[in-house]
Amino acid sequence: RIACDLVRRDAVYYATRGPAAEALARELALRRRAGIGGRWLTPGGLRRLTGIPGRGAIVTRGNAQFDPYRASLGLLRHAAADGALVFERTPVRRIEQRRGGVRLVTPHGSIAAREVVVATGYAVPGFEPLVGRFGMRHTYVIATPPVTASQASEIGFGDVMAWDTERPYHYLRWTPDRRLLIGGADRPLLPGRRRAGALAAAVRELKDHFDRLLPALADIRVDRAWE
91 vs 5, 107, 131, CA distance in Å? Predict the structure, then answer.
């Protein structure tokens, strides 16, 4: 019951090349053996559902999309109402292992606990014990302006979430205000001034990639871009 634009969507995992489609078909067979749902989309079915020319896809039910920022705030509000203590913008400088627990050192004090969970989603630069063990990458996203019903019909992309088998992969989905959100084109983490150039190159790559797949997109500008 958190207001975060939660919408149920089918997910489409598609291949644009023959060998990748063959691998997807094998994956679908393995999913079914494991009791995991999914159905196969032929090239014609993929084009009808997404407008994308490809060699095949797996489509699955029971997926959803939502606004992660609003969802996070809602979860924090409910946790606080249930008695959790929330300390935003309080960096943990050091985690010390102690008998029977841990001690978290902050700039203005410390917290003793039985255990600590580091839940950053990935190895953020500030958490040095983990950063050295991962190859950090940037991922990129572009958004169109809100499109009209006629523009959406010309694009041909249905009300699904879709991503491909490429590495790095590409994905796209609709936002609640009918923008097309396009992402992927991951690159190694770059320092300083080189980041701006990498963002510009990734935006061009994403736009060109989907302009080829969905030609009607070529007439729609990029409204927002971020990494």
Answer: 30, 7, 16
pLDDT single digits (tens) 174-191 = 999 999 999 999 988 887
Q: Are 214 and 157 in contact (CB under 8 A)?
A: yes
Instruction: Identify which of 157, 11, 7 has the alpha carbon closest to the alpha carbon of residue 67.
Output: 7
Closest CA to 12 of 53, 61, 68, 67: 61
pLDDT tens digit sequence for 185-210: 998 888 778 888 889 999 999 999 99
Cβ-defined contacts of 31-37 (< 8 Å, 24+): 31/58, 37/61, 37/62
Ramachandran region of residue 43, left (φ > 0), alpha (ψ -120 to 50) or beta? alpha
| SS3 (DSSP) at 219 | helix
Quick one: which of 43, 66, 67 has its CA closest to 54?
Answer: 43
Tell me the C-alpha distance between 57 and 51, whole Å. Answer: 13
Hey, is 115 helix, strand or coil? coil
Nearest by Cα to 78 from 151, 169, 1: 1
Alpha-helical segments (H) within 156-214: 194-213
pLDDT in tens, 20-71: 999 999 999 999 999 998 999 999 999 999 999 999 999 999 999 999 999 9
